[in-house]
Amino acid sequence: MKFFMLCMTLLPLVGCAPTRYKPLCPPTVHYTAQEERQAADELRAHPDLHELPAMMRDYGNERREMWAGMH
C-alpha cells in the first residue's frame, strides 16, 4: 500500500518533467552540384595529392550512410 501511495504521489511530478531529445547523428552538410563539381575539379588539378582524395571518399561514404540511416 505504501508503494502504491508513493507512486500515486510522484506520478504527477514525473508527468510534468520536460522531455529533451538529443539527435544521435550530427546534421549532414548539403552541397550544391556546382560546389561538388568545383571541389572535384580542384582535386583533379593537383595530381600530387594522395591522402586527401581518399579521406574525401571516406567522408562521402559516411555521409551516405548517415543519410540512409536518417530516412
| Helical residues, percent | 55-70%
Rounded to the nearest angstrom, the distance between the terminal CA atoms is 47 Å
Helix segment count? Answer: 3
**Content-based structural category:** mainly alpha
Mean pLDDT: 80
- Label the overall shape: rod-shaped
- Sketch the topology as an H/E string, one letter per element: HHH
The percentage of residues in β strands lies in under 5%
Largest sheet: none
From the alpha-carbon coordinates, what is the Rg to the nearest angstrom? 25 Å
Number of strands: 0
Low-confidence stretches: none
Considering the chains and any ligands shown, give keywords for the structure.
71 residues, mainly alpha, 3 helices
Q: Could you please describe the fold and organization of this structure?
A:
The protein is mostly helical. 65% of the residues lie in helices and 0% in strands. The two termini are 47 Å apart. The mean pLDDT is 80.
Protein topology:
Elements: H1 2-15, H2 33-44, H3 51-70
